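Why do we care about 3D structure at all? Because function follows from shape, and shape follows, mostly, from sequence. That is the central idea of this module. The next example makes it concrete: a single protein chain, its amino acid sequence, and then its structure expressed as C-alpha cells.
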Amino acid sequence: MVALRISALAAGAKIEPPWPRGNLERAAVLRELENAPGKHLVIVHYGPKHASHLDWVYNRADIDAAKVVWARDLGNEQNQELLLYFKDRHAWIVNADDPSPRPEPYP
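And the structure:
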C-alpha cells in the first residue's frame, strides 16, 4: 500500500477525493458579522432535506461573551426566549439551505 501511494504521488495521480474544506458559507457569514459593530445572534433555519454534516450551529465555550452566537430555529415561541435572553444583540436569521445563505434581520 505504501508503494502504491508513493507511486501515485510521484505520478501526480489522485487516489482519494480531496478533503472537504468545511462550511465556507458559514465562515463567510461569521466573518461578516465579526466585522460588524455590536454583538449578534444568528438563528439558523434548516430545511427538511438539510445535509446533517453541514452543521452551522456551534459556539465558543463562553457563549455569553462571544461576539456571534449561533442557534437553531426552534419555532417562534422558543426563538422568542432566545431573543429575550440575548436582548442586547442584533438578531439575524439564515436559511442554511439557500444556494447563497446570507444573514437577514430577524423579523
